[in-house]
Amino acid sequence: MKFASEFRDPKAAKGLLAEIARVAGQIGATREKPVHIMEICGGHTHSIFRYGLDKLIHEGVEFIHGPGCPVCVLPRARVDECIQIAEKPGVIFTTFGDAMRVPGTKKSLLQAKADGADIRMVYSPLDALELARRNPTREVVFFGLGFETTTPSTALAIQQAAREGLTNFSVFCNHITVPEPIKALLDDPHMCLDGFIGPGHVSMVIGIHPYDFIARDYGKPLVVAGFEPTDLLQSVLMVLTQVAEGRAEIENQYARVVPEHGNKVSLAAIADVYERRPSFEWRGLGEIDASGLRIRPHYAAFDAEEKFGVGYAGMRTEVEEVEGCACGAVMTGRMKPVQCPQFGKGCTPEMPLGALMVSSEGACAAYWQYGGARAAAE
């Protein structure tokens, strides 16, 4: 790819939209409901609204927003545990900016920082590693958060800390995986999905074959997609074509970035540092088997759960969602953000009730930023 403009060409987009309309119309002649396509990744959700694809696409296609925002699916209890660690004496707690304003049961990390906790925003776990080098008498904790996209960088940081013997560095591991929640959604009898737009950045790490079960066991197509408007339109067309032809395959529209078998260096680092948890709690989805990662015993010195006795290594409490907040329903495609009774009223970017309104990949944030504020007023 030489220029992003190649993937934002209006003429190409119009051609794709016309072909989508043709195929969607063909499918619509044999069914009453639109074709429901779930974009798993929150980055895709924002691209859809940024470029107005939801308004331009044929009425026979409906986008369903999936649980592809790792900040959004984090239960409030895990935010509480972050604050519990951060407020311990001598701790420097580091995190990506997305997680700073996510509310826990009593406050967010940003509010805990205002209350005096040493909480710092970083752009990489290597930034946290450098803080550990510069502050040998302090415990530096990195909030390991994200799907397979960010998992390798945290693993490499742990490996580097082990080589240097930086035992004042640890990771509060909340890394999660994409295929397992997709299976949970497909097993839900209330979900009516015809196909998926697969996550591009995650697939850059894991490749396309971890999704094979979607086509093989459930008969649903999935197309791994890029993030530009013509990427998404072409991917929608590829899904529709499979539906029209009665096929179910895993296809790779984003082949310029995503290798078939993933990134071998990243996968090796993940395998070395992490193992599967028996289960992990997802906001809106509950406990999902083998959907989370934990640090292997031979790296236990860098595991904040073990070091501080929190999370799954300590005493955990169930935390109810905020009354009237529909984050779970939005993330699982049962409800559009503007249908949430709190959207634009009790929940705004300035005073969020849920993570979907503050995360850069949250569906509610996308709706608000690209016209949802007006919709809420109406």
Automatic annotation (TrEMBL):
Tagged with keyword Metal-binding: yes
Pfam family of the protein (one): HypD
Gene3D superfamilies reported in the protein's UniProt record: 6.10.20.100, HypD, alpha/beta domain 2
Keyword check for Iron: yes
Keywords tagged on the record: Iron, Metal-binding
InterPro entries in alphabetical order: Hyd_form_HypD, HypD_1, HypD_2_sf
Source domain of life: Bacteria
Family: Belongs to the HypD family.
PANTHER family: HYDROGENASE MATURATION FACTOR HYPD, HYDROGENASE PROTEIN ASSEMBLY PROTEIN HYPD
Protein name (record): Hydrogenase maturation factor
Taxonomy of the source species: Bacteria, Pseudomonadati, Pseudomonadota, Alphaproteobacteria, Rhodobacterales
